Amino acid sequence: MGDQGLTLENVEIRNGQNTLISINTHIAPGEVLTIMGPSGVGKSTLLSYVIGNLPPGFDAKGRIVLDGHDITHLPTNKRRVGILFQDDLLFPHMSVGENLSFGLHADIKGRAVRRMHIEAALTEINLEGFANRDPETLSGGQKARVALMRMLLSNPCALLLDEAFARLDTKLRGQVRNLVFEYARKRDLPTLMVTHDQADADAAGGECIHLLEFGKPN
Ligand SMILES: Nc1ncnc2c1ncn2[C@@H]1O[C@H](COP(=O)(O)OP(=O)(O)OP(=O)(O)O)[C@@H](O)[C@H]1O
């Protein structure tokens, strides 16, 4: 068994001739690494490399190692990396329970067993009895909690946050952020957060890397 946590080993992402990002770092279980920097510097592209979904036109070098396993060449669905985006909308044509079921790991089989997991998950986020609700009838905070839980139900071993709180108003932002960090700590998930908001970085409390225009950390 290798080191626990998420390692980006000499990762370099290029867009044609330009080096966009160059990073070499390790995030221990339960810790948050924040990445900040100007728009277009390549923050989201880095996260897409970590989940195995680099857009066409980019090249990347370097290894991604999760809990001692080299996941660099694994398909996205085998990486055990969860991601939350700012536009993490719930599927509107599905109930809250069906949305959660979408996240629930495929290894969990049987209708009754899956329903039990979903009920437990709803209780955990204080939304007991919400399984049949239409997501459109939920408040912003409730939707954010369901989106978080949908992602956690896939049992990720690392967490990525791509401006995940950007659309929430200040008060809600703080609450949802605290909840996400609480889960990350509780489940010992190494967390890589991209944000423009210093308050997110402050709340995370861990290391913060500021990327400059050409992707070089200062
Ligand atoms: N799918 C794509 N195809 C081609 N170029 C892309 C694609 N996605 C992003 N880019 C370009 O790659 C560069 C990095 O984009 P990226 O979204 O990673 O930046 P970012 O730092 O996350 O920016 P922001 O803070 O605005 O979200 C930008 O110049 C962008 O225009």
TrEMBL record:
Residue span(s) of domain ABC transporter: 1-218
Keyword annotations from UniProtKB, A to Z: ATP-binding, Nucleotide-binding, Transport
Pfam families reported for this sequence: ABC_tran
Zinc listed as a keyword: no
Gene3D superfamilies: P-loop containing nucleotide triphosphate hydrolases
Zinc-finger recorded as keyword: no
PANTHER family named among the record's database cross-references: SPERMIDINE/PUTRESCINE IMPORT ATP-BINDING PROTEIN POTA, SPERMIDINE_PUTRESCINE IMPORT ATP-BINDING PROTEIN POTA
UniProt protein name: ATP-binding cassette domain-containing protein
Top-level taxonomy: Bacteria, Pseudomonadati, Pseudomonadota, Alphaproteobacteria, Rhodobacterales
